[in-house]
User: Fold this.
Amino acid sequence: MGYSVGQVSAFAGVTVRTLHHYDKAGLLSPGDRSHAGYRLYGEADLVRLQQILFYRELGFSLDEIAEILEDPQASPVDRLRDRQRQLREEIARLQRLAEVAERAIEVRRTGVPMTPEERFEVFGEITFDLSYATEAELKWARSEGQREAMARAAAHTKEDWRRLMTEAAAWRAELLAAFDEGTPGDGERVMDLAEEHRLHISRWFTSCPPDMHRRIADDFVADPRAFALVVPPAQQRPGLAAYTRRAVHANADRQAGGHLDPKENR
Assistant:
């Protein structure tokens, strides 16, 4: 007994267009004919369709499915194991994204509402790239420091943000002056600025040991979006990100002896 394309579409839960596409691609062509000459799907075709739909549900491409079904040397088990690994990684990624969304919702609920004018007044040219923020949240999702930083940022009042950004702007002006004057990045003056930045992070967001500060500075060079949170693009100079990174690393080396500034815990 054979089944028409309409019948197969109805009980298999796929569109007629999809079946025609499979036929045109050479993946599934009806093997029987009715007395009137119409093409019909036989039992073997239905078994093959079940296999196709199974692999499609798992995310295999049509080309991959064709290879699995046509190549007798192909190992479906190996391919399924590989796909299982990919799916588990994707599930873990989506779970982390769900956690990011949950934190973002919480920040929105508890954060300080600002009009666009107030936001510009407080943050000026500093912009927060959502894509970078999301990637950073994923990267440090398991970090206690990241969780603390998010919680403290959410708790800041509008006045807190004004003070924070005023402090950051004053520091930035000193950094730019040192860079423009040709002060060595590993000189004492610029290392002191790096230490001020580290203490700024500890004061307003989360405890920032020297090794963490190194990783933050590494991102300044690796990702322009990270450095834009410190120095807006309009104020940047070629080599400034690397200069800042050098200062942070030099300061971290200086702090390695354990002589941390007592102001950090204030």
Observations:
- The chain has two domains: 5-74, 116-265.
- The first helix runs from residue 5 to 12.
- Strands lie at 32-33, 39-40.
